[in-house]
């Protein structure tokens, strides 16, 4: 009798939380896969890379470079205690743990907003496996994005549930999210708009709380202004009309359509047949949610969700947008999805059938994205080992000459070899940061005689006795010139 009661409780628990439970079951498998991904591109230069400086220095807690992200710096300090053990494993562990926490928070958010158990479970599991999250989940330096969104959602939940002291808690958590990543600040506006859309506050409170949200932004801007800093705006961050249009197209494509991006967009890997197959498997579910059901979704709630989504991804749309930046708007997408499911005129059986097809295709796409990320990291490792082997013995300084590579790339999944090499930094990692102590790099145009020009530049640099060794990078090949 007791066993029957226990089994009944387990069955009831699973029926209520199956979306979260399946996400928890998948997590160890996802972590095992992601732990095999090595740093590439700006993973090698972010604040989360191993840092060997003393813990309490101003750069670790104040505005540095383009960002004010003290938590990134602390992670870099921790990784610097034992780089070979902790980097990038510690980073990956934080990202996966944060993604699971974010998933659970989304389930709670949907519960508070009043969605059905059916839509909550489907939407929660959908968020966890969505290919749109993979550029964040597979990255070495994306824990800032994950925890910023999680803090923002917790701030919103407390904002609509607390009676006393809610503004203090809300403001503190918004600032905490912002110190993880700057777009966390956007929820200072999203919170009141979303609360108004779901009738937690009236129009008068909305106006008042939006003013408070603007005040939070002004306070952050003031703090940035008075901080000691040295900022050079990268050309990629400069806004432009055509750039914004392109970013909006990328956002809509990567958010509302699920397809194997590598098979579709990466020229060397292109396989249109498999890209179409992945789209056909995901399309029925997306069609039921976004197309067939559109008339039932029009109203104040949907308008507020859409406005909130635009605000969430706005900073990226105006500057730089990549697949990783989709994450900032995905919690709003999940609210929209749950709203669509609850208002869908189709039977539950039809929705479940479509979702199972979507889930299977998504997991297959995820596996492919992770596999290609692993391959890109291994390219950088191979190049680093080649540079070390050809150099022969430790040198203090290296000048890296990169022959411009026109090899196609796709986000953080399929990376150009010299970016996987980290412009030479991958070699420092392979030597446990023992050597070379100094790495400088330059890029020359690819041409028929680029190798000759690179060697001439290398010999000229050696003769000036500024560096002990030259590494010439030609796609995946490393040529070494030394004294």
How does this model look, in words?
It contains 21 helices and four strands. By secondary structure, it is mostly helical. It has a four-stranded mixed β-sheet, sandwiched between helices. Strand 3 and strand 4 form a beta hairpin. The longest helix has 44 residues. The relative contact order is 0.11. The model has no long low-confidence stretch (mean pLDDT 89).
Attribute tags:
5% strand; 483 residues; mainly alpha; 64% helix
**Outline:** globular
The end-to-end span amounts to 82 Å
| Strand elements, count | 4
Describe the strand arrangement of the main beta sheet, using strand numbers. 2-1-3-4
How much helicity do the residues have? Answer: 55-70%
The oligomeric state is: single chain
Which class do the helix and strand fractions yield? mainly alpha
- Unreliable segments of 5+ consecutive residues: none
**Tally of helical runs:** 21
Order of helices and strands: HHHHHHHHHHHHHHHHHHEHHEHEE
**Main sheet specs:** 4 strands, mixed
> What's the overall average pLDDT, rounded?
89
Give the amount of beta strand, in percent. 5-15%
Radius of gyration: 24 Å
């Amino acid at each position: 009798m007791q066993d029957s009661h226990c089994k009944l409780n387990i069955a009831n628990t699973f029926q209520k939380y199956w979306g979260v439970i399946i996400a928890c079951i998948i997590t160890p498998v996802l972590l095992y896969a992601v732990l095999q991904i090595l740093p590439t591109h700006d993973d090698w230069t972010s604040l989360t890379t191993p840092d060997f400086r003393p813990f309490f220095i101003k750069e670790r807690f104040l505005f540095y470079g383009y960002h004010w992200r003290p938590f990134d710096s602390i992670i870099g300090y921790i990784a610097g205690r034992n780089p070979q053990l902790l980097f990038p494993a510690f980073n990956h562990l934080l990202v996966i743990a944060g993604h699971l926490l974010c998933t659970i928070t989304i389930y709670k958010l949907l519960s508070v907003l009043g969605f059905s158990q059916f839509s909550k479970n489907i939407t929660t599991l959908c968020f966890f496996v969505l290919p749109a999250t993979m550029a964040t989940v597979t990255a070495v330096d994306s824990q800032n994005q994950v925890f910023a969104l999680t803090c923002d959602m917790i701030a919103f939940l407390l904002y609509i549930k607390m009676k006393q002291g809610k503004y203090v808690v809300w403001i503190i958590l918004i600032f905490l999210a912002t110190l993880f990543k700057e777009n966390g600040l956007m929820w200072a506006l999203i919170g009141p708009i979303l609360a108004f859309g779901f009738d937690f506050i009236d129009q008068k409170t909305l106006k008042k709380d939006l003013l408070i949200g603007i005040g939070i932004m002004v306070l952050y801007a003031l703090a940035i202004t008075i901080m000691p800093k040295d900022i050079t705006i990268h050309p990629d961050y400069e806004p432009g009309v055509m750039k914004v249009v392109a970013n909006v197209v990328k956002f809509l494509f990567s958010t509302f359509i699920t397809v194997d991006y590598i098979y579709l967009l990466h020229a060397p890997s292109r396989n249109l047949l498999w890209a179409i197959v992945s789209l056909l498997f995901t399309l029925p579910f997306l069609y039921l949610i976004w197309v067939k059901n559109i008339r039932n979704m029009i109203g104040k709630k949907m308008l507020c969700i859409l406005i909130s989504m635009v605000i969430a991804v706005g900073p990226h749309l105006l500057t730089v947008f990549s697949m990783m930046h989709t994450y900032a708007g995905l919690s709003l997408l999940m609210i929209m999805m749950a709203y669509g499911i609850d208002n869908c005129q189709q039977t539950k059986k039809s929705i479940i059938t479509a979702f199972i097809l979507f889930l299977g295709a998504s997991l297959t796409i995820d596996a492919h994205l992770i596999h290609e990320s692993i391959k890109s990291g291994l390219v950088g490792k191979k190049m680093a080992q080649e540079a070390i082997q050809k150099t022969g013995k430790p040198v203090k300084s290296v000048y890296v000459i990169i022959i411009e590579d026109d090899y196609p790339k796709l986000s953080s999944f399929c990376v150009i070899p010299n970016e996987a090499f980290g412009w030479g930094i991958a070699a420092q990692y392979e030597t446990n940061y023992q050597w070379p102590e100094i790495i400088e790099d330059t890029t020359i145009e690819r041409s028929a005689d680029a190798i000759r020009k690179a060697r001439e530049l290398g010999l000229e640099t050696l003769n000036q006795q500024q560096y002990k060794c030259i590494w010439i990078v030609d796609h995946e090949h490393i040529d070494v010139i030394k004294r």
